Amino acid sequence: MPSLIRTASTQIRQGLPAILSVAAALTAWEIYVRVSGISALVLPAPSRVIGQIAANRELLWANTLPTLQATLTGFAFSLTLAFTLSVLIDFVPRLRRALFPVFVISQTLPLVAIAPLVVLWFGFGLTPKILLVALVTFFPMLIALVDGYDSTEPEIEALLGSMGASRVGIFRRARFPSAMPYFFAGLRISITYAVVAAIFAEYVGARAGLGIVILNAKNSFRPDLMLAAVVISSALTLALFGATALMQWIVLGWRQAGAGR
Hints:
By secondary structure, the protein is mainly α. It has ten helices and no strands. The longest helix has 38 residues, at 167-204.
């Protein structure tokens, strides 16, 4: 617990410049809106956006839950898919040459063109959101895991092999642990894309979610409500990013502590 407290205080001190920069930008934004007299239909002030969050908290909360569900479900599917494929590729190297070009091509497809087709094929339920989140997020985790396996020191593998360890045993004791720092790097990247993909899927076609709030606010010429939904989505992304960072500290903190000694 003391180590966790020290880590948290260190992270807060390191994040203080960013917090001050954001506060300064919001202050300048507020001052500009008040001094210039620009219409709230064009550029609402931050105070007005915060007011919309408070006034529409029930609406925003009710639509945040579907977005969070789609994000977590899609990300869990993406994580399972990425891990399974990474293991198969590690044990069958020929699959890398066969599958990687396909995966790379999948990342070049514009989401704005693919999303309507996925919604058309699978309807307005949860399935298209899961597929779109997985499409956007699985590749960084797959690349991170495969590169992490390859980072294993050959001497360790040779030592384990000389002691009679099987291919599975070498993977479990050496290659998989070596991939953990790479995996969490890919996890942090992917989780920031997951919320955006879920909201975009909702924007294209859904019954509820922050994407629907943004779409309805746009059609009603309510930029203040649009920005309120954007703030909620950003807060959701930051919370998920923080959760992955905390998970990394729990899993790999012992390595960092050992390095510090």
